[in-house]
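Hi F.,

I've been meaning to write this up properly since the lab meeting, where we talked about keeping a consistent format for the predictions we share between groups. The idea is simple: the sequence comes first, exactly as it goes in, then the structure tokens exactly as they come out, then a line or two of notes. No screenshots and no reformatting. I'm using this chain as the first example so we have something concrete to point to.
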Amino acid sequence: INSITSIIIGVTIEDRIFHWNPYAEELLGIKSKKLKYTRFAESGIKWDWQEIYEAIALCMLEIKTVKLDDVRFMRTDGKEGVLGLTINPLIRDGMIIEGFIILGKDLTEQRILEEQLLQSRKLEAIGQLAAGVAHEINTPMQYVSDNIQFMNKSFTGLLNILNTYERAFVKQKDNSNILQELGRIDELSRKIKLPFIIEELPRALEQSIEGL
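Output, unedited:
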């Protein structure tokens, strides 16, 4: 019993400690010699006594084992630890309640690992969310970029046609040159596919506005 790496505390029906094993001494930093027949509440354990005694009362009244998870306590190094406790009624001859036995495991390292795992999962979820957000942003940005490149190229051709129109307007008094300028306009229109630009340019602008 003394070699078990669990807290074993025995308390009588009069709330007096009668057993305090070596592991309890080591973990709680309280020697058993100082506690022999001391009231349990005066043992000096730094934890939530109200929570403990409520569980003890339930154990004694209903004569059943009561489990407590994540009981916070102060370790000997001054840091907070976590215990898992089981409070068991101590019964003699199947009917006489003589007290209770508390069994406890130090869950501190386990809870730290669980917290680290939870944090890792949170970071993984954030990474997946970031990837999804990046995809949602990149998709409209891509067609905005494509549309702007198309518009840039189209406007270059349109400017050439507008400049030719302007020259034709200036030279309209000279009927011998106007037909030549109109021919150049027709040639440029076919070269830049003017009907296609007229049809697609408004659509590209609408898509870009939507993407932005």
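Notes:
DSSP finds five helices and five strands in the chain.
The longest helix spans residues 108-170.

If this format works for you, I'll send the rest the same way.

G.
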